[in-house]
């Protein structure tokens, strides 16, 4: 049996922002899914994660895809476009073309692609209606790119109404918390034909109340606007989360 070698590329969604450990490092759905993969199969899984927060879709492809493929994985996961959707003048078809590039390169290298759509934060965001419309268009465009490809693993989170509940989100309303990341990890394992722990699918019925009104804008929206004005990114100066293989043994 060929050992699974799973590499993830992407932005903060795949890096795991919102699912912070006590020491300040982040975990996230990809870490959780990789360990769950080992647990479900009873076999070690080699896991790497090149994701960096703040990255747009095409920079993810241009900076992370080839280093990921150079590791010679059996499986590669890709998600991108969440940061693009928050920018003015976004070209949804251009973002979707990034998925086409990733699929082509995976085909050339004999790697099985896992495509994820991000969770939908629009219900609680400023300009949420705009984010919802763009996310719907991007989801449709990506699905067209992988139409007729049953070999592509689909872990589609954008249509998941349950995942949009506040209980799955961190205080910034833009990144999932630990419950959200576990639900996404459960969906990835399910899409692979594996059985995730049932508890991963659910969150409490209520959520902690984060800052509201001006306090929310000062803490989260203001810094985001400053980064746009100064053309900086939350990922500036950050290296890949896990640039080489880590071996995860079944628990």
From TrEMBL:
This protein's name: SGNH/GDSL hydrolase family protein
SGNH hydrolase-type esterase domain segment(s): 8-182
UniProt superkingdom: Bacteria
The species this protein was found in: Microbacterium soli
Signal peptide annotation: none
A GO molecular-function annotation: hydrolase activity
Entry keyword set: Hydrolase
